[in-house]
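[Protein data]
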Amino acid sequence: MKKQSGQSIIKLFLREAALVAKDHSLLLTLLIAPLLYAFFYGSIYINKEEQNVKLAVVDDDHSRLSRLLQQNIDNSPIVELIHFPNLEEAKEQMYRGNCQGYFYIPKGTESNLLTLKQSNVVLAVNAARFLPSSDILMNVQQICLTIGAGVRLQYFQKSEGMSSTIAMQNVLPVNLDYRPMFNERSSYGAFLLPGLLALILQQTLLIGLSESVAGERQHSRIGEWLRGGISTGIWGKGLFYLFLFSAYAFFFLNVNYNLLNLPMRGNGFELSVLLILFILTLIPMAQFIGSLFKSQLLCLQMMAFSTYPIFLITGYSWPFESLPLAVQWLSKLLPTTPFIQIYSSIVQSGASLSANPSALIHLILLWCFYSVIAYIRLNMLKKNLLSA
């Protein structure tokens, strides 16, 4: 019995490979799209950080301090200063989109700072574009604090005769030791790319396999596919996708990660186990979804439409706890939600597979859930076919 079941699974595996080879839509989705998307989207974020974000500067102080501020800001690889003679012209250039903000140094900035008076400089940024504004703010703020502290340190040393240690304590009574962990440069590309590669793996599998199942209904091949039993049919067809997407996962982790210079801090074996479990969960999920459609084209359109919503509600691009409660419950039905939590901690933080037991149990339960509902749905289709 086991031998016959094994032979049936192998036959279904070869049958699925033959179907994919004949179907141009499946061939494009399964063999071209994963590699094309991985390299295309990866190339967009290959630099990971912005460079030479234009910032207008107006210097009404014309002091040694103002020149030092401008020199240090301009030396930053992220910010490129553009000088303007007056504030009105700098604002106009920002409104036109020629620069992402303006930095204004008013008259008396240096003299106020040297006499221990509060000295204000103005940084206005175009917050309609989130990344440029946050990058400018982070760089300019750090430089202003560093230079301001240095000027006051010299004042205490020369005017008050303080030692370097005591002067530093007066300048910085509370010293913040800021250490970003894992994504040390706080770059958007390094944050986004690991999750993006996982999403490409998931969506191409879901689209391809659900489209294949919808094709079985459209071309009246359900009886042929499920002849050896429902479980044999599910895992015979699914075996082809398990091998194919396990190979893609291995390729992404070894080729794309190296080309994009992404760190992989976790254990490779544990990550492999996680990816196989994830693919095993997606296989019955895709077959259940595909069984709901009689048209292969309609299934393809609906699944392609779902890509961006799935990415948004999994808690990767926005904190899961901040999502509306109804969206949180919907998100918990997706294997992506627990997978991304474990995957990110292994890849980016170097955690072990057992570091997220609740997410791991969640993913296993979803595997069981989708296996059951796929079995029930396909069994219904088979009974309807026999009774027709």
In short: The first helix runs from residue 2 to 22.
